[in-house]
Write a structure and sequence with these properties.
Four copies of one chain form a homotetramer.
Chain A lengths: L1 H20 L2 E5 L2 E9 L9 H4 L3 H8 L26 E5 L5 H11 L3 E6 L6 H9 L3 E6 L5 H15 L4 E4 L14 H27 L4 E8 L10 H21 L4 E8 L18 H13 L8 E4 L11
Helix pairs in contact in A: 3-6, 4-9, 6-7, 7-8
Amino acid sequence: MRKAAHNCEGKMLRYLWKSLKRWRAIELGPIAQVFRLDRSTPVTRNGGRRVRQAGARHRRWLAIPAAPASQPYAPTGAVPAPSQPPAKELALIVGVGPGYGYALARRLAREGMAVVVAARNAVRLDTLVAQIESEGGTAFAYGCDATNEASVTGLFSHVAAQHGVPDLVVYALQSFGPGLTIDVEVPAFEEGWRKNCLGSFLVARAAARAMLLRERGTIILTGSTSSLLGRAGHLNLAVGKFGQRALAQVLARELWSQGIHVAHIVIDADIHEGQGREDGGPQSDPEHISETIIALHRQPRSAWSSELDVRPWNEQFWEHC
Amino acid sequence: MRKAAHNCEGKMLRYLWKSLKRWRAIELGPIAQVFRLDRSTPVTRNGGRRVRQAGARHRRWLAIPAAPASQPYAPTGAVPAPSQPPAKELALIVGVGPGYGYALARRLAREGMAVVVAARNAVRLDTLVAQIESEGGTAFAYGCDATNEASVTGLFSHVAAQHGVPDLVVYALQSFGPGLTIDVEVPAFEEGWRKNCLGSFLVARAAARAMLLRERGTIILTGSTSSLLGRAGHLNLAVGKFGQRALAQVLARELWSQGIHVAHIVIDADIHEGQGREDGGPQSDPEHISETIIALHRQPRSAWSSELDVRPWNEQFWEHC
Amino acid sequence: MRKAAHNCEGKMLRYLWKSLKRWRAIELGPIAQVFRLDRSTPVTRNGGRRVRQAGARHRRWLAIPAAPASQPYAPTGAVPAPSQPPAKELALIVGVGPGYGYALARRLAREGMAVVVAARNAVRLDTLVAQIESEGGTAFAYGCDATNEASVTGLFSHVAAQHGVPDLVVYALQSFGPGLTIDVEVPAFEEGWRKNCLGSFLVARAAARAMLLRERGTIILTGSTSSLLGRAGHLNLAVGKFGQRALAQVLARELWSQGIHVAHIVIDADIHEGQGREDGGPQSDPEHISETIIALHRQPRSAWSSELDVRPWNEQFWEHC
Amino acid sequence: MRKAAHNCEGKMLRYLWKSLKRWRAIELGPIAQVFRLDRSTPVTRNGGRRVRQAGARHRRWLAIPAAPASQPYAPTGAVPAPSQPPAKELALIVGVGPGYGYALARRLAREGMAVVVAARNAVRLDTLVAQIESEGGTAFAYGCDATNEASVTGLFSHVAAQHGVPDLVVYALQSFGPGLTIDVEVPAFEEGWRKNCLGSFLVARAAARAMLLRERGTIILTGSTSSLLGRAGHLNLAVGKFGQRALAQVLARELWSQGIHVAHIVIDADIHEGQGREDGGPQSDPEHISETIIALHRQPRSAWSSELDVRPWNEQFWEHC
């Protein structure tokens, strides 16, 4: 009896929440305020003590709150004095998670690059940074919501001020919620697009703006099987990943001639994250994918690539997400 | 002197407006309100006198304001009594503008279909409806903001109640604002995506939900060269159109087996809108494109097409927008 | 014991034949004669009594033996006097077999076109011609080896002399021998390419040469899933069909602006030939595919299509041959 | 007057030659001999003195004349005793010409690989071999007509006997004769296909057969813009290159799971051959393309690529041959 009441209550709450997440608009004459409620997205605030000491120049940025953010955070790793030029190449990976992002960061550090890793929750990246430093590498972790313009702009300002302009920027975020199209809710549809496409636009635009001054640099966008094929149940992923591929094509045509190498890597694979697939199927070792990222970054500019696929030797072709 | 002051004021206003259009978020504990200001989008309200008489059932829908909307509007054309089954096939075109949409509506009416045309400003469609009726056809105009979920849901409820479930739904909206990626502002980027992709999702999802009960119907999404190629300066168009193509692929795989024919038509052409191109170049006659829409709709189901291109005989291949 | 001897003999014969089928070259100074043995390909000779009466002009062609050919053959159906202009549109289908070719011929005849059907063995087409004529249509059968230049040139000369220039030419031949690449023998590899690609070149070139004088006409090349995807075990089919797709793209770019509509139809389906699939799976009714061929031929020229796919509503996408 | 006569004679000769190049067939009951005349293709015979000493095993191969061949030739470079295992990785490049092939050979040698280079005229490769050896590398030149089965089989037997199974095989041949489709002659059409497609099949099949025993190795097929796009005037190139791409896709699906990495590199560029383009346009440095060949060969097998493009940073996309 109580359970039935509880169920009913839960149903009403879900209905209410679904309704609150809908876009609404309040008309104010020729102007409208468009809004909806969403879950708060906690993003680590890049305002730790050590960073604040880095200079007054940085303070202005801190005044603009990057996003719905929470815990103050001191980026891990030694901060180099901004006045001296960076001795190492600098890589920035946005959307770093276990598996692909972690392995790429470690591999780039072993390649001799200073690595900035960014994720919404930068605290979680501390272990990664510690690990890289224990291996003799250089790494810094920052909080960033890649789907939020101010947060991305802030990240790039911060990185430029503290570490210089990145030589290599990788967008590593991917988001997938399966479901048939008729069942897909608008907030989920938009959320998928924001993570798979809008974020890559924000990051690539910021990277391009920074790199154009020096007329060099590499921007790599990470795609998947769903960048090329819209399969049943994969709407949320495919719409964003197709859009990201469009972005990669446009950027390559706009930026290559300015000296900036834009490339799109299509990962047609399940990526190993320290545990095997439930079905025991084949997986790509993210360190192996990283070899190809490095090869792309190292390509001499008379023979650049704009797109390539990767998958394990023992995997079916184009059967993945 | 006054001009300089005026310029300066204009600059400040533009800066202010640009800033107001940015997404902001107010945190309310675990929940955040995400909002930004936008220009008010006037959408014709489908609440005219004649329609309101159509039944109490409709009233509930009217109570939910579809979108930032303005002038009340009585849909043009005779409304059939909802109780009697529709004698004609019913077509619904969303995003009807001069050129493609207008010609398609006229052509479908001549084919013997009752045609519902929807655009943000339904008042502008009165002439089209009158023209179709003067040619002996049947047409109705409705206001709908295709990028607004409530507006699209409302349109389909209304059409279902007044005219029945459409046999053919065509998404005809396209939006393009040229510009290099580094100069593209987030609101323009999102706006392009909403018109080129989100709208087609909302319309196709509503169409699918309605058609699934009868296990038949045709949904056609209108793409362009930028559905296949991301060219320099075409970011806003390509990101949305690539996404719409993903949607078309996913929908075809999900809906064909339910009896619903989903097809993607790639218009690699400038469309004639009553005036020639400035450069005197070749154009597609939209009535001619309509022949192919009809052929797709008429395809027997053991040999359906999912994608095709159209362009004039004297046009370059894949050189268009 | 005898069986073993027999086996051994068979093995030797197979080995010998395999060896004889290999290309050889005899050098004659700066010139070489390239040759190999092959099975004789019997092609119906279009030299029946009625045709020979048609005029001295034709005799010259008859003097050039079309190909390794055999039985003399009088084309079925009444031959119109070549002096009077054709009252009906004329269609020519090359590579007519049960299923697709047969159904297309019948459907085009019902559409009011005079239909010329060509296959290596024209005698087998008599029933088809009789059937079309019993339905009130007009049809003629000719022998032609589509992979042999003289045979194709001869066919077109003959058709031009007897029936006029075709308005629609369809290349309908497909050949597939499965097998892993390491096991594929050169003669089989070449044979697949000749039927799937060389033949379509010969036919399309002859059609283009004839149509260019009138600046109108439609050429349709028939492709399959393997025109787009090279799948394991499908080498012989895919190499030819990819090549044919290249031909279709080149031809469209060269001929559209001359008024000739070239289109490539990708049949991603098993085609019904009067009996269901062994696995009970879905099939395309070839009459239904023919509807799309007609729609392509009827497209007004300001909105031509260059490529489209067809498959049954209940079939998987791109899982076919 | 004499000139006119000369012209007339030339015309007759051209006509005669064109006619002799046509395929003919002599019927011998159920068997036919298919033949045509062609220019003799001189291929360096790999039967030099030093090689003949290498063992009786080799003699059987020499007994089968590889192709219309001419001058006996001793492969350049020191021949290692076949009994000792190769200390270095072995690369084999077939279709080596100035530009791409030359640079790739030098680059692979600098990478520490023993390099076997093959072309029809192996004598011309002596300078290349000498250059590589002067730089401390190891190289051998062989004569091979890549479009001739016996010649390719012979090359692989010879290489296996003398140097071992190659770790990396690159098919580097490309042939292009421009022209509108209606003007393309069958021998030219076939010749283009033989060089761009049949040869890559022969080489890849031989490589696969050799590599399968060891379950490792890399096969790289070299494509161009015309592997993806059939442009006006590019028939002969596109038909073969599309076909080669089909081969690459089929091979990847068949061989990856056997441990053999097959990849297709699409060179969308003009390649520098020691002199700039006539129009001063951008060119790819073939040494730079070689970096990507090496990167492909070095990819760890949990993240292999099957296809990628290369072009200069300052080149238009997909505007090349």
